[in-house]
Write a structure and sequence with these properties.
Layout (H helix, E strand, L loop, with lengths): L5 H4 L3 E4 L3 H6 L6 E2 L7 H8 L5 E5 L4 H12 L3 E4 L3 H19 L2
Parallel strand pairs: 1-2, 1-3, 3-4
């Protein structure tokens, strides 16, 4: 699992492996959504993802992305699994917004 900055996330290939419903409720900007539970997950990923770039991967908390990472690595992808998933991202974003609002007072 890896930690990255928001600036880094805006410049990378970012894959959200949660369900479309979860994705529509909120996601990291610029993320591509491929549902881990889809029967053809690997086919979809192989068609959509470049093998010459590191893929930054996340789910809600880390379980699905860990499973997806194993499968994608076996297909030849370089993967960074984002620590804590979308839940960690939400907490960080909330914290950063609180700091920004305090700084603007």
């Amino acid at each position: 699992m890896a930690e990255v900055t928001a600036e880094e996330l805006s410049k990378v290939v970012l894959l959200d492996v949660r369900t479309p419903e979860e994705f529509s409720e909120g996601h990291i900007p610029n993320a591509l959504n491929i549902n881990w539970f889809d029967e053809d997950f690997l086919d979809q990923a192989d068609k959509a993802l470049p093998k010459d770039q590191t893929i930054y991967l996340y789910c809600r908390s880390g379980r699905r992305s860990g499973l997806a990472a194993e499968k994608l690595i076996a297909l030849g992808y370089t993967i960074l699994d984002l620590e804590g998933g979308y839940q960690a991202y939400q907490k960080t974003e909330h914290y950063l917004k609180k700091i920004e609002s305090k700084g603007n007072n």
